[in-house]
Write a structure and sequence with these properties.
The two termini are 47 Å apart. This protein folds into two domains: 65 residues, no CATH class; 405 residues, Peroxisomal Thiolase, Chain A, domain 1. The longest helix has 16 residues. It is an alpha/beta fold. Helix content is 37%, strand content 16%. A hairpin with a 3-residue loop joins β13 and β14.
């Protein structure tokens, strides 16, 4: 029987050391603690622990002492030590960032398929993409475009963080990637070819290759990251929420570093046909570069994009110990639900407000501390108005002192990748004290009257930045990063 002197105060949380125990021992130990907490010490459970892993009553007591010690420690600080990106503006962070600062648009006529019969014939495509330069040709045929892009961005991020790409990263490195639909194009191709042939013969790996968790799998496999592995599938909020989930793994000691971000590659006719029928897309086909115009009174819908951004998040102590570069610190994150409508934002933006408030609470910051918000800013009539209202509700008069912008004005809406790319943007803004413009802002909208850095980049002191991602299904996510202050 465990020592009766064990108190409820010692049973509050699992610590890092217990999370490193074998799963069977951890599960049985938790069951014992639950029995103690209920005031019923179950001798049968203790016997199971002893027989399964030879854990003595003294070991249980020592483990509980460890619980208390670990609970007393502050959560570990999380920093960004590496970044990689593939976007419609460039196939690296540096190229994409400089094009954004220059106010360049990556939106053009669709080249991935014949869009002649569609109302919208423009998109933000990744240009001159050649996966064969770093992936074996046989693997390319099996791998969805989203997985290919994610591997490239992850490789960039590891090199940027001064981490090896040719040896296993081990079980203290996790992978968390966000996406909306993963390898959607594989399934569309299978359906089309099967229809043409009149049978349902498919290649052996087609079913697996299109799964949403394949980008995360391929990253973990390629780089030997055998720690926690997760895929966040929350539509347009997925990239931001994935970074938040990765942050928690490090904060709580479940991993020392995590490769995290978001990816999407959905430039396919079926996807465009669906959103066209919803009348959600811009139809400025004759002027692609001016089609995405967030917060402008003449905005008529969003533009579909594709891309990826991957980060190396790392425990601060680990980063300092190995002399890693530190771009910024992840201060807070949150996720919330509108619980309202599958496609329309809740009129008062309550879910968006909650996401921002909760992220500030997680970061232990007052609204006045935020200098800059990279908005969801999708260029749809309802979203931009609702987001502006939500920002005013959360930040009050300070809403008119901070600055906002929309990356989607230049790279369109990359769904599950959008929040990750925008997290790259706020990280660079915090690092360099520079803001990219919101392009195509020509006609002011009285309901969208915040400073959106119209048309021209700007230098400004950016110590704390926030990124908003609001998506289909009422999914909201928010991220806060700040300058690393030591």
């Amino acid at each position: 029987m465990p020592n009766q002197k064990l108190t409820l105060a010692k049973m509050t949380i699992l610590g890092e050391r217990l999370n490193r125990l074998p799963a069977v021992a951890r599960e049985l130990l938790l069951e014992t603690l639950e029995s103690i907490q209920q005031g019923e010490i179950a001798s049968a459970v203790v016997e199971r622990i002893s027989s399964a892993r030879r854990v003595s009553a003294e070991a249980v007591e020592r483990a509980l002492e460890i619980f208390v010690q670990e609970q007393a420690r502050p959560l570990r600080r999380v920093v960004i030590t590496g970044m990689g990106a593939v976007t419609a503006l460039g196939q690296s962070v540096g190229e994409s960032w400089h094009q954004l600062l220059d106010g360049r648009s990556g939106i053009d006529q669709i080249s991935h398929f014949n869009a002649a019969g569609l109302p919208t014939r423009i998109a933000a495509e990744i240009k001159e993409w050649d996966p064969a330069r770093f992936i074996d040709a046989k693997e390319v045929r099996r791998m969805a475009r989203s997985s290919q892009i994610a591997l490239d961005a992850a490789h960039q991020a590891l090199e940027d963080a001064h981490l090896p790409t040719d040896q296993p990263l081990g079980h203290r490195t996790g992978v968390v990637i966000g996406t909306a639909l993963g390898g959607f194009e594989i399934y569309q191709d299978v359906i089309e070819k099967s229809t043409e042939r009149g049978n349902y013969r498919v290649r052996p790996m087609d079913l697996v290759g299109g799964l949403p968790n394949m980008p995360a799998f391929h990253i973990s496999q390629r780089f030997g990251a055998s720690g926690p592995l997760n895929t966040v599938v929350t539509a347009c909020a997925a990239g931001t929420q994935a970074i938040g989930e990765a942050t928690e793994l490090i904060r709580r000691g479940l991993a020392d570093r995590v490769l995290t971000g978001g990816v999407e590659a959905l430039i396919r006719d079926m996807f465009f046909a669906g959103f066209s029928s919803m009348k959600a897309l811009s139809t400025r086909n004759d002027s692609p570069q001016t089609a995405s115009r967030p917060f402008d009174a003449t905005r008529d819908g969003f533009v579909i994009g594709e891309g990826c951004a991957v980060f190396v998040l790392e425990d601060l102590e680990s980063a300092l110990e190995r002399g890693a570069p530190i771009y910024a610190e992840v201060l807070g994150h949150s996720a919330s639900a509108d619980a309202y409508h599958v496609a329309q934002p809740e009129p008062d933006g309550i879910g968006a407000q909650n996401a921002m408030r909760w992220a500030l609470m997680d970061a232990n910051l007052q609204p006045e501390a935020v200098d800059y918000i990279n908005t969801h800013g999708s260029s749809t009539p309802l979203n931009d108005k609702t987001e502006t209202h939500a920002i005013k509700e959360v930040f009050g008069d300070h809403a008119y002192d901070l600055v906002i912008n929309s990356t989607k004005s230049m790279i369109g809406h990359a769904f599950g990748a959008a929040g990750a790319i925008e997290a790259m943007v706020i990280t660079k803004s915090v690092q360099e004290d520079r803001l990219h413009p919101t392009i195509n802002y020509e006609t002011p909208d009285p309901e969208c009257d915040l400073d959106c850095v119209p048309n021209t980049a700007r230098r400004a002191a950016i110590n704390i930045a926030m990124s908003n991602s609001f998506g289909l299904g009422g999914q909201n996510a928010c991220l806060v990063v700040g300058k690393y202050a030591g």
